[in-house]
Every structure is written in structure tokens, then in C-alpha cells.
Amino acid sequence: MRYGHFDEKNREYVITNPATPSAWANYLGSPEYGAIISNNAGGYSFVKSGANGRILRYRFNAVTADQPGRYIYLRDTEDGDYWSGSWMPVGKPLSGYNSECRHGTAYTVISSEYRGIKTETLYYVPLGATHEVWRLKVTNAGGAPRKLAVTGYVEFTNESNYEQDQVNLQYTLFITRTYFNGDHILQKVNENFNDPNRERFFGVAGAEVTAYCGDRDKFVGSYRGYHNPAGIIGGLQGDLNYNDNSCGALQSDIILQPGETRELIYLLGQKPEAAAKELIAGYREAGRVEKEVGKLKGYWHGKLDNLQVQTPDEDFNNMVNVWNAYQCFITFIWSRAASFQYCGLRNGYGYRDTVQDIQGIIHLAPEMARKQIEFMLSAQVSNGAGLPLVKFNHNPGREDTPDDPSYVKETGHPSYRADDALWLFPTVKKYIDESGELSFLDHPVVFANKNEPVSVYEHLKRAIRFSMDNLGAHGLPAGLHADWNDCLRLGKKGESTFVLFQLFFAMGILAKYAEIKEDTAYIETLGGWQKGIREKINALCWDGDRWIRGFREDGTVIGKNGDQEAALWLNPQSWGVISGASGNERGVLTMDTVYRELNTPNGIMLMYPAYHKHAFDGALAVCFNRGTKENAGIFSQSQGWAILAEALLGRGDRAYEYWREASPASMNDDADRRVLEPYVHGQFVEGKDSPFAGRAHVHWLTGTASTVMVGTVEGILGLRPAPDGITIDPSIPGKWKDWSMTKVLRGKTLRITVNNPGGSVHGVKSVTLNGAKLDGTFIPDRMMKDENDILLEM
User: Fold this and answer.
1) N or C: which terminus of the chain carries fewer CB neighbours within 10 A?
2) How far, in Å, CA of 338 to CA of 361, rounded?
3) Could you check whether the bond before residue 733 is cis, i.e. omega within 30 degrees of 0?
């Protein structure tokens, strides 16, 4: 069943049936103030940290799903009938209630019509601001005057720390109180401390407050819920909270003549009373909302404009042009900090997660990427490893490490991971290639634990050194605490083929930088290491039609042909191609094995068969049901690497097939089976062993966004910048006969037209730049103008 559609022109997803299979969400705000909102106005808000900055409550995994939220209630004061501006929480029968939600880039608009009253509520956080705005328009579409009580409502947390607020009730139920100050409810937390950073407000501009409530339990009433609160049915009574639970409820009584529209603006944030009053007064200025939203759209759309495609596949266009790109920015900003599944307990950035997330935005915002790359380099330990968890209040040069008991106690991460620092190589390379800033290699950055800046080039050398200092019995990279797969523990001295391919790839990148730096001694060292690694790859890791997954500490091979369980793993096969270690012949053979044994209509399983009866102690994935997550589920992040691998092999039809299988947009007409939003990737999809194959889980904050984006842009579209130009070498489905794309590269606009009359899947016959034919697929910077027309003939 379909619940909505893409509106590419306005860069929105439009939900026309509010009874979606799950809460379909959007993100508002910035690193300073974040908010998540569903199509029924459920969700929560936080300042800086979803763990330690929560200001609105949300009940995760509740029977009454997706509550509470940012609610607007309307009551007809003449007959007592009441409803909400979003379908939920009141939930009027859809036979008489019309609803539409438009999720856009950092804003959401929820509209309704019930009994001749139309509402439109725009939710957003102004660019760079630390408060949120709900602009409500109420229109009388009937022929008679209407008397309405309009009430905005929020449920405050009692404590900014999410876990304390939810669990430590013997403390948090006794530290708050609320005040009414004319146009807003003010909540004070630990009032006796006189800390202005412990004050929250909910206010309204554009209408007089005729009634109010600051006590959640009085607002809801005994044995009631948000669908039938006492404060709406009987009117607000001026109750304020002292201990127990706080809320903000502001009622405005209005009379609407036929055709008349009234505008009310609700404001929410964590600010002291004086700042709240000033802010609310500022929103009495006509046109302020339009200016702020225009600026917000201009900012995000300007980022997205740096790559736009027009292909015969509308789903492909919507994902590349808007939703996959926007999701990349959201994961870049929020990592895994706050969603409807990540409750807010992770108070920091996962090293590998964040470094990979950066890759998804480099082609759209290299300046943002650079800043975050520097930040993550400053979280690299002087021994070359990355800090497994980088705290939100990271203090470069002065951090403890997994070698220190204090770090382990604070973060829960007992040791280093084998892969963390190796993700720096593709990320730094993509940044330098996109920006052309080779001098970035010389940029000084401190280590996490040493306040002594060294060059980015030295940071990369240390990352290689860490891997070479931690080898197993066969001379392959040790698995340490884990490689990318946290559910596969090969043992501290077990060995990972996946990490081996990463290391081989990293050495290839660093060898080129060593040549640029004329670091001849290191070039010789790297060459020796690479030669030895290639020999070990071929001698130890090849198993007929696949690469093995690795070795346990006792030498047992994981992932070999004929194993009863976990006989084939996806990531070594795709990374064998990406790293260049497989070569074309073995690359084709291994990826054909993947297609034959791992592929399903819903994507490629991470491994197969699932662990069930023959798992070893380190096969932690056995804790999951078969076909779930790392236990033969379709782990979505790995789909992007498979797309890229097939594209690099020149098999455009296969790369595109994998793209279609992985794309949420492909499931728009089968949303009841997918369950998650059809406009953003999830963490995983249930595999073929599940009775619910195709059902997706864990929305928005996932590395899938960046890997699929990279696989799409560098693989299918074939856009591969270099410091001195760009290669354009697409691998596409043969049915794409004529298509185009526009890319901005270092301030220059490239308008690229692709003609494919013969239905080729790969191979560029000719490239024409501004009327002049070029040799090969590389376009040098020196030949480009500010505006460029490029014609590719396939």
C-alpha cells in the first residue's frame, strides 16, 4: 500500500494517509538544537545532546506509539467537539478527517481539515538558532462563524539527562516547577541553583493566552491519554507544576469569520525568562517566519544543488537529488545520537561511523567535511588507532584512551577496533580529490592523547603503523576487539580478511601521497608491505570462488566454502574489488558468487547460512533471530559497497539492480511490508530466513546513507574527482539511453549529457568538453571554464 509520494520539485515527501505502518520522521535543527518529528507530530527535542540535553519527552517502543509530541488541539466551544491539527493524538475517523504531512529539508508541514476548519502547521528550527517554531494557520472554510479554543501543548522532561529523567524518579519527580508569565509557560529545573541553563519555555505569539496549564497530570487527567485529555475537554484551569511532571499548555480562544485565517506562532526552547520574552516578542513581527524558512530552504537546497541528476528512473532522481543526500547530512550531524530507535544513550561519536558518514557529504559540502575530518583526526590516538567512542565534549590532546581504565569506565569501550583508523584513508582521499587541496596533507592536527600537532600525512602513516603493529599468526591484521562487524569477534589475535583489504587499499592511497611528498624511504617501506600483503591474500585467503572472512585465534577458518553456517560473507568480496586486490577475474568470480548465494529481491544478505547451531563463541550474531541484523540479515550499509564493486567491474546492470533492491523509494508502493519510511535508508532489512522478509528497521541514522551515496555517485554515475580534474566513467543500466547530471566542482559547473543509443552498461566512447573532443575519460581542471558543457557518448 502507498501512503505518500515524492514531490521532487519542492524537495518534499508528501504523506497523504497518516496511518503509516510506523512513525515516518524528519529532522529539524542543527548540532546546537535538534528535533525529530513524525508525520503525526510525535517526537522530541534536545539541546546539543540527545543523551544530556533532552527538553521534550518521548516514549520509545510504547504500545500507544509515537507519543507525546508537538501537539495542537482545537475545540469547538459551542458543541464541545475537539480534534488535533495532526491526525494523532486525537485520531478522528479518517472518513471525516483529512490530513497531509510534507516532510522537507529541515522543516515539516502538517495540514488538516475537519468540519470546515483547515489547519496548516509549519515546524522548523531557524538556521543557526537554539529554539523551534511552530507556525499555525487556522482557516474557517465554512459559511458560518466558528468559536474555537486552540491549545498548543508540550511535555517537558524533568531532567536533561534522558536516563535520569526516565529511571531515577525518586529524584527527578521532585526538582521542577512551572510558572505562567503572560505569553509563556516557564519550567525551572533545580530552581534553587539559579542556573539559567536549567530553564525551558513554551510560548505563543499572535494570540492572547486565555487559559494555561503547567502540570502534565492535570492536563491529561486520571485514566485518560493524549487522545482525550481533561484539559482539552473541560478547558485549562491554570494548574502549575510543583514536583511531579511539567508540561506547557497554552489555550487561545478565537472567533473565525467565514473565510478568515488566523496565525499563531508557538515557540519552544531552553532559555531563561528574559530571553524567552524577548524571543516571543520578536515573532510578532510580520513576515519573520517566511524569511526564516526561506533562508533555511536556501541553505539546504544550495547544498543539494551541487549534484543533480535527471535519469529515466524517478526514484533514482529523488534519492540522489534530495533524500539520500539529505539523510547523509543528518547522519553527518547527529551520528547515532537520537532517533526513534536510538533513544539518546550514546553520548558521543562512534569513530568508524563518523568517519564513514563524512564520505556521504563530501561531494556536496567539502568545507563541512574538512572540519569534521580534522575533528576525527584529533580523536586518533598517537599509536595510530582511533578512539572507539569520541565524546561530544571531546578534548583533543588531553583525552584518555582504551589503555586507561578511566576511558573504559566512562565509555564502556574496553579496547581498540581493527578498522577504525583505516576509514580515514578513503575519507581523506575523497576530500582531497573533491577540494583539490593537496596541502591538506600538511595540515597540523593533534592526537587525542598528545597535544603535539603533526601533519595529516603523519596521522595516516600512524594508522598504517597501528595495523602493522597488530598482526596475527599468519601476518594478517588482527581482529582486536572487532573489525567493522561488532558481532564477529575473531579474537585479539584472530585475523580479518575485511581489514586486510582495507589495509591494502589504504597503502595504495598512502603510496601516492608518499610520491607527492617525495618520501622515498617510506615509499620503499610501503612497497615491501604491499608486496607481502598481496602474497598473503592469494596464498591464505582464497577459497575457490570466494574470499574467506578470516581466522580465529586457534587458526580456524571463518567463511569457507562448505561450512554449515556462515560459509559466505559479503564484505570481503566487495572490498576485494574496491581495494583492487581481487583483480578483474577474481572480482567477477567472487561477485557472481555473491549474486548466486547472497542476493535476494530485498538486497544482499551480509552472510549465509545464518548462525543457528554451529556458532563459535565469537559469533555474537547468533543472539539474533535468523535473517536479522548481522545474522544473515540484509545489513544495508554493505549494499553500497556491493553497488560500488559491481560498478568498478563495469557491470552497470548489476550495480543498478542492487541499487533498486536497496532503495527505500523502490518500496513506496509496498510500504506495509517495508514499514520504515520509503524516503530514507534503515540499518537493516530482514533476510530470506525471516517470515517477514523485506521488513526494514532502525531508521535515518545509519552508515547506509553514505555507502549507498558513494556507490551511486562514484560507481553508477562514475563521478570520480581528482586534485587536478575529474574522471567521468558511468556504469549504468543499459535501458538508460539519454540522461544528464549537473555537478559543481570547486566552483565550476559541469553540465553533463550522456548519450547511450546502443544500451551500453559501461564504457565511454568519447568525451566532449565545451565543443572540444578529449582523449579518455579524464577532464583536466586547466581546460574547464566556470560553466562547462560536457557530452559523453557511450
Assistant:
1) N
2) 20
3) no
**For residue 741, what are the contacts with CB-CB under 8 A and spacing of at least 6?**
307, 308, 309, 310, 717, 719, 752, 754
Q: How many Å apart are CA 644 and CA 691, to the nearest integer?
A: 30
| C-alpha span between 217 and 229 (Å, rounded) | 9
Check: CB of residue 320 under 8 Å from CB of residue 309.
yes
DSSP 8-state class, residue 320: I
Residues 6+ apart with CB under 8 A from 583: none
Neighbouring CB atoms inside 10 A of 525's CB total 17
The whole-angstrom separation of Cα 432 and Cα 770 is 26
- CB within 8 A of 130, min separation 6: which ones? 32, 33, 47, 269, 270, 271
Strands across the sheet containing 82-84: 82-84, 71-76, 146-155, 246-256, 211-215
What would the pLDDT profile of 600-646 be if each residue is shown by its tens digit?
999 999 999 999 999 999 999 999 999 999 999 999 999 999 999 99
Distance CA 239, CA 177 (A): 11
Name the nearest CA neighbour of 193 among 274, 272, 247, 269: 272
pLDDT at 65: 74
Residue 285 makes CB contacts below 8 A (sequence gap 6+) with none
The closest alpha carbon to 479, from 427, 418, 536, belongs to: 418
C-alpha of 676 from chain center: 14
Active-site residue, selected from the candidate residues 7, 486, 545, 781 = 486
Q: pLDDT exceeding 90 applies to what percent of the chain? A: 96
pLDDT digits (tens, 9 = 90+) for 108-164: 999 999 999 999 999 999 999 999 999 999 999 999 999 999 999 999 999 999 999
- For β-strands 131-140 and 261-269, DSSP reports them as antiparallel
What is residue 711's DSSP assignment?
I
Helix axes 366-377, 351-359, angle to 10 degrees: 160
Spatial neighbors of 782 by CB under 8 A, at least 6 apart, are: 724, 725
Instruction: Write the DSSP symbol of residue 610.
Output: P
Q: Is the pLDDT of residue 177 over 80?
A: yes
- In the DSSP assignment, the letter for residue 319 is I
DSSP strand pairing (146-155 vs 246-256): antiparallel
CB 375 within 8 A of CB 447: no
Give the phi and the psi of residue 254 in degrees, each rounded to 5: -135, 155
Task: Using the CB atoms, write b or e for 652-683: b if 16+ within 10 Å.
Answer: bbbbbbbbbbbbbbbbbeebebbbbbbbbbbb
Q: How confident is the model at residue 348 (pLDDT cuts 50, 70, 90)?
A: confident
- Mode of pairing for the β-strands spanning 444-445 and 454-455: antiparallel
Residue 46 and residue 53 in contact, taking contact as beta carbons nearer than 8 Å:
yes
Mean pLDDT of the chain: 97
Report helix, strand or coil for 120: strand
Query: In the predicted model, is pLDDT for residue 51 greater than 90?
Result: no
Q: What is the DSSP letter of 317?
A: H
Check if 724 is active-site: no
The reply to whether omega before 272 is within 30° of 0 (cis) is no
Q: Read off the C-alpha cell for 429.
A: 582521499
